[in-house]
């Protein structure tokens, strides 16, 4: 009755695993024992053939982009030289780094002429002037301090995690060119929205991996709303935001796809590991999303570039779309003011008179570039 015990003839067997690396020989010094352990550990690591432990990735590309954008903004403000253009500069104590009047640029930044000179995107120059490089150069320019801060802070929050900015910027510039035929566009916001789009597509295609989906989604919504609000101000391009977001969203399904849970790569298996039965690296729906995204991306870029160089103005088919990128208020205007000057030229000397203000000026022209004349007239009439 009660608890049964083993009989007295039973004996206990204890198995001791042989671990020679942990056996200490009292006749060997401590330094020699430590050296022996290191040698055995190295032999254990190299015995696995191709097995190599994963190394942490140190983010350096995104911080480098942030530094480059800040330095370039300082250069743009140096070139702008507001005191030479206007008497109502903001923060005049900064000298030639002072900002344009708030009515002209409420984001605390340079003039439109300076941005255009430094590589801002303008459809006429891209299409008729064959300056396609502006689709890339405009990505590195910013309309003002507020624009720069919003982009760089958001880029640091999200970009360090993805580090894929360049892949999405071109899509934003292309969509911007299709809608903003009469304006100029600058900013890395298209690239930033590409990161947001890629983050969303990664959340969808790798849904089971995220532990806190609500936090990831909330971060996306807050940053998107912040940049869309900034995009309603002059010189900031919401069409680049939309185009960049769509491009990044599609590219995320292509580049940010992760293997399904349970798939094991034989190259990363430690020595002696017995892999489970073979399983497909990706799930079926991941392959479907990849194929659809690749098709839409190639088709969209092809049609967009074709329409751009044909001179198609999408606003003719969507008149209200212009308010998606700038909302006019009594504090600022969404359209650049039209200025007209009367000119007379004697050799390299050019005399200009602004018809709206009556101001006159004399300039020495190195050439007869029409763009240079337009910039001089705009500066004279300010």
From TrEMBL:
<keyword id="KW-0720">Serine protease</keyword>
<feature type="transmembrane region" description="Helical">
    <location>
        <begin position="287"/>
        <end position="309"/>
    </location>
</feature>
<feature type="transmembrane region" description="Helical">
    <location>
        <begin position="138"/>
        <end position="162"/>
    </location>
</feature>
<feature type="transmembrane region" description="Helical">
    <location>
        <begin position="210"/>
        <end position="233"/>
    </location>
</feature>
<keyword id="KW-0472">Membrane</keyword>
<dbReference type="GO" id="GO:0006508">
    <property type="term" value="P:proteolysis"/>
</dbReference>
<keyword id="KW-1133">Transmembrane helix</keyword>
<dbReference type="InterPro" id="IPR002610">
    <property type="entry name" value="Peptidase_S54_rhomboid-like"/>
</dbReference>
<keyword id="KW-0645">Protease</keyword>
<dbReference type="InterPro" id="IPR022764">
    <property type="entry name" value="Peptidase_S54_rhomboid_dom"/>
</dbReference>
<feature type="transmembrane region" description="Helical">
    <location>
        <begin position="174"/>
        <end position="198"/>
    </location>
</feature>
<feature type="domain" description="Peptidase S54 rhomboid">
    <location>
        <begin position="130"/>
        <end position="256"/>
    </location>
</feature>
<protein>
    <recommendedName>
        <fullName>RHOMBOID-like protein</fullName>
        <ecNumber>3.4.21.105</ecNumber>
    </recommendedName>
</protein>
<dbReference type="GO" id="GO:0004252">
    <property type="term" value="F:serine-type endopeptidase activity"/>
</dbReference>
<dbReference type="GO" id="GO:0016020">
    <property type="term" value="C:membrane"/>
</dbReference>
<comment type="similarity">
    <text>Belongs to the peptidase S54 family.</text>
</comment>
<keyword id="KW-0812">Transmembrane</keyword>
<feature type="transmembrane region" description="Helical">
    <location>
        <begin position="57"/>
        <end position="79"/>
    </location>
</feature>
<keyword id="KW-0378">Hydrolase</keyword>
<dbReference type="InterPro" id="IPR035952">
    <property type="entry name" value="Rhomboid-like_sf"/>
</dbReference>
<comment type="function">
    <text>Serine protease involved in intramembrane proteolysis.</text>
</comment>
<dbReference type="GO" id="GO:0005794">
    <property type="term" value="C:Golgi apparatus"/>
</dbReference>
<feature type="region of interest" description="Disordered">
    <location>
        <begin position="24"/>
        <end position="48"/>
    </location>
</feature>
<dbReference type="Pfam" id="PF01694">
    <property type="entry name" value="Rhomboid"/>
</dbReference>
<feature type="transmembrane region" description="Helical">
    <location>
        <begin position="239"/>
        <end position="257"/>
    </location>
</feature>
């Amino acid at each position: 009755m009660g608890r049964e015990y083993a009989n007295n003839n039973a004996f206990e067997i204890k198995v001791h695993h042989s671990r020679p690396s942990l056996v200490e020989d009292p006749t060997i010094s401590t330094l020699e024992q430590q050296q022996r352990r290191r040698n055995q550990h190295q032999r254990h690591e190299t015995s696995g053939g191709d097995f190599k432990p994963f190394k942490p990735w140190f983010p350096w590309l995104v911080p480098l982009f942030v530094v480059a954008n800040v330095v370039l903004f300082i250069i743009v403000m140096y070139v702008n030289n507001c005191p030479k253009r206007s008497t109502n500069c903001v923060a005049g104590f900064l000298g030639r780094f002072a900002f344009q009047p708030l009515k002209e640029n409420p984001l605390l930044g340079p003039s439109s002429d300076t941005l255009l000179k430094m590589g801002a995107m303008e459809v006429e120059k891209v299409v008729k002037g064959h300056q396609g490089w502006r689709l890339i150069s405009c990505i590195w320019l910013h309309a003002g301090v507020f624009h720069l801060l919003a982009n760089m802070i958001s880029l640091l929050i999200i970009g360090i995690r993805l580090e894929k900015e360049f892949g999405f910027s071109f899509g934003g510039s292309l969509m911007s060119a299709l809608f903003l035929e009469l304006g100029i566009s600058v900013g890395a916001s298209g690239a930033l929205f590409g990161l947001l789009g890629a983050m969303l597509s990664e959340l969808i295609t790798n849904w089971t991996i995220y532990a806190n989906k609500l936090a990831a989604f909330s971060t996306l919504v807050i940053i998107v709303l912040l940049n869309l609000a900034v995009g309603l101000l002059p010189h900031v391009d919401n069409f680049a935001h939309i185009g960049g977001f769509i491009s990044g969203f599609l590219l995320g399904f292509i580049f940010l796809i992760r293997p399904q849970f349970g798939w094991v790569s034989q190259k990363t298996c430690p020595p002696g590991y017995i892999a489970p039965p073979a399983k497909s690296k990706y799930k079926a729906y991941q392959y479907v999303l990849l194929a659809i995204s690749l098709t839409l991306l190639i088709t969209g870029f092809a049609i967009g570039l074709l329409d751009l160089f044909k001179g198609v103005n999408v606003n003719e088919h969507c008149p209200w779309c212009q308010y998606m990128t700038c909302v006019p208020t009594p504090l600022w205007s969404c359209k650049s003011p039209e200025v007209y000057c009367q000119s007379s030229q004697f050799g390299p000397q050019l005399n200009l008179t602004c018809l709206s203000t009556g101001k006159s000026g004399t300039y020495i022209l190195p050439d007869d570039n029409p763009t240079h004349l337009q910039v001089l007239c705009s500066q004279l009439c300010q």
